[in-house]
Amino acid sequence: MKYVVLIHSNPASWVHPMFLHQQEQLEPEARATKLKEFGALMAEIHQSGELVESAALDAPSTTKTLRIRDEQLTVTDGPFVDVKEHLAGFFLIDVASEERAIEIASRMPDARYGTVELRPLADLSDMER
Questions:
Q1: Counting runs of H as helices and runs of E as strands, what totals does the chain give?
Q2: Is the full-model pTM beyond 0.85?
Q3: pLDDT digit string (tens) for 58-67?
Q4: Torsions phi, psi for 65 (to 5 deg)
């Protein structure tokens, strides 16, 4: 079963795509602990073959928002949505059960400070190609 783990974090805490889970208010020891936990989780799901793909997204200020209305394309800078959290990155995992997907997602450090969304991939195998 494939799931996408979506990481939502506060754009004000954006430091670098590799360290999105580090919140500015954390003490250095807490940051080190979270980074160690994250590294252990990544190593585990990589070695088990459950990690299919992952990527961090760049800062919200680099976003382009596209809309087509009345067949006219409009491209604007930034998401221009007043939100406290933004989509910071994702992990695509392939696991044996929903329970395992929940266990992995709950171990993401962002679950403590931001939001981690777990969504199964839709089965589109019966759609015409």
A1: 3, 6
A2: no
A3: 877 788 888 8
A4: -110, 130
What does the alpha-carbon distance between residue 101 and residue 120 come to, in Å, rounded to a whole number?
9
pLDDT tens by residue, 83-120:
667 788 899 999 999 999 999 999 998 888 778 999 99
What single string gives the DSSP state of each residue in 57-96? ---GGG-EEEEEETTEEEEEES-----S-EEEEEEEEE-S
Q: Could you give the CA distance from residue 1 to residue 88 in angstroms, rounded to a whole number?
A: 23
Cα→Cα distances 66→60, 63, 77, 78, 82, Å: 14, 10, 9, 10, 17
Number of neighbours of residue 59 by Cβ within 10 angstroms: 15
